[in-house]
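Tutorial sheet, problem 5. The two components below are modelled jointly, 237 residues in total.
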Amino acid sequence: MFEIGRLCLKIAGRDAGLKCIVIDKLNDNYVLIDGQTRRRKCNVKHLEPLDNVLKVKKGINHEDVVKELKKQGIEVKEKVKRSKKAMPKIEEKPAIKKEIEKKEEKLKLKKERLVKLKKKKVVKKAEAEPKKTPAKKAKAKPKAKKTT
Amino acid sequence: MPAGRHKSRSMRRVYTKLPGNKVVIHYKKRKPSKAECAVCGAPLHGVPRERPYKMQNMAKTKKRPSRPYGGVLCSKCMRAKLKEKVENV
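Model answer (structure tokens):
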């Protein structure tokens, strides 16, 4: 009944109501199906055999299955995966663009403030250092004499 | 003694244990009836029996099985209906 190429209706699970072809026979109870449904193994109890049997090779590709089904007048809708490419571009949304520009300006101002603060610290250190350095040298020399 | 408004059994009684080991009765509204198949009247699996305020916060996938006629028909009736459709075409 469920020979290779048999057109079937899936009657269980989330693919129920969709048409498929038997691609391979795994054992007495299970077959491999493909078509409008996902390509997967399936219990024979979850399939309703239809009248047509297509001339198809064992383990045929999904693309070829789609072509064969199209000849029978059955269209297969491919699910489009959600990806970043499918999302609308930022340039197309003016509100988002403005927000991004504002954030960038804020970051620039922050960076400028940090640079100014660093400069101030460097100047303060430079003013404080020349007084300390000679004192250190003076302390270091007598220590060396004691050790010898 | 229960308060006068709690004497009728329209509210369900929930016994809760407090941190001080004291058992008190909380009065809560009753749950709605079980979801049934529109054709044969069998109780539907995978449809929670909760009040609307809880159902609102649930995901759509948790409220009914994700198959055609999920949450309306039982699986047997759904299969019969799909077969019928194909035969008629």
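Marking note: The first strand of chain A starts at residue 6 and ends at 10. Full credit if you identified this.
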